[in-house]
């Protein structure tokens, strides 16, 4: 029997604790703490999968709870709540290691979704650690969370794997929702820097007046409210990887300083003149055409060339429709588990609708669609009626040769099974010496699905393990 995830909810308002217990109690083991002091005692005694804590509480506040949790259990995900959602609080919480931020008042489904995503993030972190232990440097490559076996994705995988082994700057390009952060994490987790920090920041989400302070740090008294010196994200990522998402949104003055950091490998905090040496690999990402932006004077041309050392283009989902059944099966399993629902799969009609939709929001939009379908499905399988009307009504194409015409709904992976022949599976297990976990990761399918395929072809993984 699968163990339920554990959630600690910390708030000095009794009604909030009761609300969380009601919303999450059927899915997770929920423990409530009426103040920060009680939460610290609970955290000292045991590990939780996810902690949801208010920021402003008498006695020990949410930041003390956050620090205590992350220092003791780095893989526990922490969600911060507040009715005072100021930018400094949000930025400080995220920099201190919070997974996300929840502003009161909220709709009932907001914490459910957020905790589910936090649980999945923790699962992926732990899975990455296991894969790291199973795969010493040079023996394998982990694409945790990156699903797809199309020709376009295999080319992206090849470039990402090559980039990971070269300690150089990487520029990930592609439309919004194509999985650039997952690709950046794959670069980091498979590099020589894997034991050091991976720090991610969305440049477009930083307020213009805080960009330089957040990236490069500031000295005491550098501006109003700077009561003490503070390290920036480059210093936090020292020895590891800094992921600059939506780097094309940086203001021009911040671009100048970023260029200097990349050239000199040192930062100067705002309000200070003494440089601080940093050893950071930068992985940048953007949905913009930076070359065109540079031609229009909106992005520095010299910074573009400094970032574009190793470019990797991630394909949009409409250009790799053959991956949609694999992705749908993966996401159905993921969100079914998160919501405590057991679904048999998708009907042929539902899968045909998914394949025919152009997905302007790419994998992110597909995930939101599957999440909604899992939540509203009334029967044992997701049907066409469970999909949003805009997805059902906008159909612009299907897989070549009518591949989605007759699909058994118990397993959306059936569409891809022709590609998983006995010869392919045999070669796959030979390459990974019978390690089913690593073989499934490389193939872009769930471990259980690979086991079913091996059983179907009467292939024993033990036959490929070293003697």
TrEMBL record:
<keyword id="KW-0238">DNA-binding</keyword>
<dbReference type="Pfam" id="PF25601">
    <property type="entry name" value="AAA_lid_14"/>
</dbReference>
<dbReference type="InterPro" id="IPR009057">
    <property type="entry name" value="Homeodomain-like_sf"/>
</dbReference>
<dbReference type="Pfam" id="PF00158">
    <property type="entry name" value="Sigma54_activat"/>
</dbReference>
<dbReference type="InterPro" id="IPR027417">
    <property type="entry name" value="P-loop_NTPase"/>
</dbReference>
<dbReference type="Pfam" id="PF00072">
    <property type="entry name" value="Response_reg"/>
</dbReference>
<keyword id="KW-0547">Nucleotide-binding</keyword>
<feature type="domain" description="Sigma-54 factor interaction">
    <location>
        <begin position="146"/>
        <end position="375"/>
    </location>
</feature>
<dbReference type="InterPro" id="IPR003593">
    <property type="entry name" value="AAA+_ATPase"/>
</dbReference>
<dbReference type="InterPro" id="IPR002078">
    <property type="entry name" value="Sigma_54_int"/>
</dbReference>
<feature type="domain" description="Response regulatory">
    <location>
        <begin position="6"/>
        <end position="119"/>
    </location>
</feature>
<dbReference type="InterPro" id="IPR011006">
    <property type="entry name" value="CheY-like_superfamily"/>
</dbReference>
<keyword id="KW-0804">Transcription</keyword>
<keyword id="KW-0067">ATP-binding</keyword>
<feature type="modified residue" description="4-aspartylphosphate">
    <location>
        <position position="54"/>
    </location>
</feature>
<dbReference type="InterPro" id="IPR025943">
    <property type="entry name" value="Sigma_54_int_dom_ATP-bd_2"/>
</dbReference>
<dbReference type="InterPro" id="IPR001789">
    <property type="entry name" value="Sig_transdc_resp-reg_receiver"/>
</dbReference>
<protein>
    <submittedName>
        <fullName>Sigma-54 dependent transcriptional regulator</fullName>
    </submittedName>
</protein>
<keyword id="KW-0805">Transcription regulation</keyword>
<dbReference type="InterPro" id="IPR025944">
    <property type="entry name" value="Sigma_54_int_dom_CS"/>
</dbReference>
<keyword id="KW-0597">Phosphoprotein</keyword>
<dbReference type="InterPro" id="IPR058031">
    <property type="entry name" value="AAA_lid_NorR"/>
</dbReference>
<dbReference type="InterPro" id="IPR002197">
    <property type="entry name" value="HTH_Fis"/>
</dbReference>
<dbReference type="Pfam" id="PF02954">
    <property type="entry name" value="HTH_8"/>
</dbReference>
């Amino acid at each position: 029997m699968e163990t339920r995830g554990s959630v600690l909810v910390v708030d000095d308002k009794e009604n909030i604790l009761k609300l969380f217990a009601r919303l999450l109690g059927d899915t997770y083991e929920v423990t409530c703490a009426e103040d920060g002091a009680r939460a610290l005692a609970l955290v000292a005694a045991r590990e939780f999968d996810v902690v949801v804590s208010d920021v402003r509480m008498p006695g020990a506040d949410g930041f003390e709870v956050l620090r205590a949790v992350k220092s003791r259990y780095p893989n526990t995900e922490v969600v911060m709540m507040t009715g005072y959602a100021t930018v400094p609080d949000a930025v400080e919480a995220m920099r201190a290691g919070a997974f996300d931020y929840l502003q009161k008042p909220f709709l009932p489904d907001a914490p459910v979704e957020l905790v589910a995503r936090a649980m999945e993030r923790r699962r992926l972190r732990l899975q990455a650690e296991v894969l790291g232990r199973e795969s010493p440097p040079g023996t394998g490559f982990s694409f945790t969370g990156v699903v797809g076996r199309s020709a376009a994705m295999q080319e992206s995988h090849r470039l990402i794997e090559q980039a990971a082994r070269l300690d150089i700057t990487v520029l990930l390009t592609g439309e919004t929702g194509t999985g650039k952060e997952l690709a950046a994490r794959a670069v980091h987790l498979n590099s020589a820097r894997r034991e050091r920090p991976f720090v991610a920041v969305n440049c477009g989400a930083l307020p213009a007046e805080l960009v330089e302070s957040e990236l490069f740090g500031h000295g005491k008294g550098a501006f109003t409210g700077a009561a003490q010196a503070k390290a920036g994200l480059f210093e936090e990522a020292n020895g590891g990887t800094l992921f600059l998402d939506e780097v094309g949104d940086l203001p021009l003055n911040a671009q100048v300083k970023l260029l200097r950091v990349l050239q000199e490998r040192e930062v100067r905090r705002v309000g200070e003149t003494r440089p601080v040496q940093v050893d950071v690999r930068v992985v940048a990402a953007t949905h913009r055409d930076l070359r065109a932006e540079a031609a229009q004077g909106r992005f520095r041309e010299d910074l573009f060339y400094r970032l574009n050392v190793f470019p990797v283009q991630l394909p949009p989902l409409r250009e790799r429709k053959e991956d949609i059944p694999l992705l749908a099966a993966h996401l159905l399993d993921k969100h079914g588990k998160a919501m405590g629902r057991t679904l048999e799969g998708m009907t042929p009609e539902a899968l045909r609708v998914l394949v025919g939709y152009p997905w302007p929001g790419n994998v992110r939009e597909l995930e939101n669609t599957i999440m909604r379908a899992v939540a509203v499905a009334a029967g044992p399988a997701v049907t066409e009626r469970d999909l949003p009307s805009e997805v059902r009504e906008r159909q612009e194409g299907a897989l070549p040769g009518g591949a989605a015409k007759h699909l058994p709904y118990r397993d959306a992976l059936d569409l891809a099974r022709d590609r998983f022949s006995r010869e392919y599976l045999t070669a796959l297990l030979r390459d990974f010496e019978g390690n089913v976990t690593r073989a499934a990761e490389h193939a872009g399918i769930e471990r259980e699905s690979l086991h079913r395929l091996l059983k179907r072809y009467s292939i024993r993984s033990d036959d490929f393990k070293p003697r």
